[in-house]
């Protein structure tokens, strides 16, 4: 059961050019055999130049199309727009994407399937950015990370991120196994990356969340976002200049973003029929997981498709899996996915004042499969 607008979606390129292929590609570039370091085949579509040291700089929210559109605000980064973009996974959201990059696994395997998703066997949602204390991150995501596997293969692996994220649930599921260096300021981050990159062979991972935060609060067409983009561009250029010349720098993103105007916001609470048969509403405004009451899946899919029409694509879990949205899906991950998933088209959003009041304060959103959200830059210098 689907709504319209699917021609505007960009499917994930797992195994070709996606976030989960970045670290495996770095491993090959470092001369590490994938079977030894990552226990998976070599990437088939993403090839990086050989080097003995790599720095991967992930800018949260820097979509490929946004960088193209506002290239004059980011002259250094836009000068590196030589390669075709890669894709985020589904949903195109931070928790899912950061885990894909850190593990080298697709969402259906690593199990971080959204900003919020059901804790199996309960009526609760796991908020992946505010990890609950009673959910063990190592049980939720039991696979060794790509960082840990590289370290076991003799590569020095370092994560440079804000101090507040050290030991968080999301850090544990996606970055465990690497040395963690807390760095809150730009200068600290650059200095830490330079120090780590001296090791041979090495992979250093930097993360910057400020552009994403600005986009959520003000929108990606705001002067605040454009000024933040310029700051990120300067940070990336300073990083390149500070690194040894034989160190390769790769700048990537976890997703893009779209601004959701007020007249394109549907509140589930204004449509009582959308609650019928739904036991739990999860996901986020651009990509909803609907956890249904027993026997209600088809009716829920039909109701949501009828009400939303061209504003979203509505699929049952099985349909979404067949389309490859999450890649191969482990049995333990299946119940975390909605029985019905709802992917917004264009710049629409599906809100709930009751369940997710905070989302209504956001201007920029992401999570769905539009090119603006799915396409991410792979900038190599």
UniProtKB/TrEMBL annotation:
<dbReference type="GO" id="GO:0016787">
    <property type="term" value="F:hydrolase activity"/>
</dbReference>
<dbReference type="InterPro" id="IPR017850">
    <property type="entry name" value="Alkaline_phosphatase_core_sf"/>
</dbReference>
<dbReference type="InterPro" id="IPR002591">
    <property type="entry name" value="Phosphodiest/P_Trfase"/>
</dbReference>
<protein>
    <submittedName>
        <fullName>Alkaline phosphatase family protein</fullName>
    </submittedName>
</protein>
<dbReference type="Pfam" id="PF01663">
    <property type="entry name" value="Phosphodiest"/>
</dbReference>
């Amino acid at each position: 059961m689907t709504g319209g607008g699917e021609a505007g979606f960009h499917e994930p390129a797992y195994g070709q050019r996606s976030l989960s292929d970045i670290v495996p590609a770095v491993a090959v570039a470092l001369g590490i055999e994938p079977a030894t370091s990552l226990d998976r085949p070599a990437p088939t579509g993403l090839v990086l130049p050989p080097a003995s040291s790599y720095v991967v700089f992930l800018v949260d929210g820097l979509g490929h199309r946004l960088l193209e559109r506002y290239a004059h605000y980011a002259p250094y980064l836009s000068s590196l727009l030589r390669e075709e973009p890669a894709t985020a996974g589904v949903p195109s959201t931070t928790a899912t994407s950061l885990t894909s990059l850190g593990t080298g696994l697709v969402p259906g395997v690593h199990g971080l399937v959204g900003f919020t998703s059901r804790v199996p066997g309960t009526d609760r949602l796991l908020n992946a950015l505010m990890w609950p204390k009673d959910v063990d991150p190592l049980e939720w995501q039991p696979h060794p990370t790509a960082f840990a596997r590289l370290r076991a293969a003799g590569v020095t692996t370092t994560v440079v991120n804000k101090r507040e994220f050290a030991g968080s649930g999301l850090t544990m599921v996606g970055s465990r196994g690497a040395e963690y260096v807390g760095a809150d300021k730009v200068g600290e981050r650059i200095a830490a990356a330079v120090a780590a990159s001296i090791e041979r062979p090495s992979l250093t991972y930097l993360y910057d969340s400020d552009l994403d935060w600005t986009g959520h609060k003000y929108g990606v067409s705001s002067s605040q976002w454009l000024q933040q983009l310029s700051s990120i561009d300067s940070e990336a250029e300073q990083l390149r200049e500070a690194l040894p010349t034989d160190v390769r720098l790769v700048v990537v993103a976890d997703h893009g973003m779209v601004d959701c105007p007020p007249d394109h916001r549907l509140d589930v609470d204004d449509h009582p029929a959308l609650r019928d048969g739904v036991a739990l509403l999860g996901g986020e405004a651009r990509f909803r997981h609907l956890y249904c009451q027993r026997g209600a899946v088809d009716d829920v899919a039909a109701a949501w498709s009828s009400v939303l029409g061209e504003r979203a694509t509505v699929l049952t879990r099985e349909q979404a899996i067949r389309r490859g949205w999450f890649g191969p899906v482990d049995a333990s991950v299946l119940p975390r996915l909605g029985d019905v998933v709802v992917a917004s088209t264009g710049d629409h959003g599906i809100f709930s004042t009751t369940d997710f009041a905070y989302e209504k304060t956001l201007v920029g959103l992401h999570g769905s499969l539009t090119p603006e959200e799915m396409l991410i830059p792979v900038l190599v210098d």
